[in-house]
Amino acid sequence: GAGVSQSPSNKVTEKGKDVELRCDPISGHTALYWYRQSLGQGLEFLIYFQGNSAPDKSGLPSDRFSAERTGGSVSTLTIQRTQQEDSAVYLCASSFSSGGDTQYFGPGTRLTVL
Amino acid sequence: DAKTTQPPSMDCAEGRAANLPCNHSTISGNEYVYWYRQIHSQGPQYIIHGLKNNETNEMASLIITEDRKSSTLILPHATLRDTAVYYCIVRVATKGGSNYKLTFGKGTLLTVNP
Predict the structure, then answer these.
(1) In the predicted model, is pLDDT for residue A100 greater than 80?
(2) Average pLDDT for residues B84-107, to the nearest whole number?
(3) Chain A contact for B59, CB < 8 A?
(4) DSSP codes, chain A
(5) Hey, is the C-beta of B53 within 8 angstroms of any chain A C-beta?
């Protein structure tokens, strides 16, 4: 079946511009997660959505980062006024339900801020 | 979540079995052993998980010792496409709670040679 999809696969932007990254979770999965992975580093948790509950935003590194999940499906991660340190691969994952369910990842969006 | 220890790198000949070890001596009774892998420039891919019984699926087998302090991921017939970083993590796999933030260690870089 279809897995998690993300778009764009690559994004190059100039410092100071805003970017939007999109994630389509696996159909029927109620939980959605955003992580980022800097070059050679491990996963950094950003935000978690579960159904209609308030999201856990505890991992967002600054107020320039925000995310929405409309209709309980597609999610958009927005980074305003991008900085060079925002350059990373942004990964989206989804799971059937919450908590410790197995998370399935998308291919990621590679963001490069010049 | 309990900490894991994996060798930084391993080599395997194409067509042979790849046996990747993982130590998790501080694992708790309610923690599962999960394996993911990450092929260069791709998102993490779920492989398999287990609690105390050995598990097998179409990708791999997971052998967990009786005391649960270590486990081995077995790729029965490694191919060149199995070259990747393999991550062993232990986590509580329960509904709800705050145990959804995945963290990966350094993992094992498995290189399958022709």
Answers:
(1) no
(2) 82
(3) no
(4) ----EEE-SEEEE-TT--EEEEEEPPTT--EEEEEEE-TT--EEEEEEEETTSPPB-TT--STTEEEEEGGGS-EEEEE-S--GGG-EEEEEEEESSSTTSPPEE---EEEEE-
(5) no
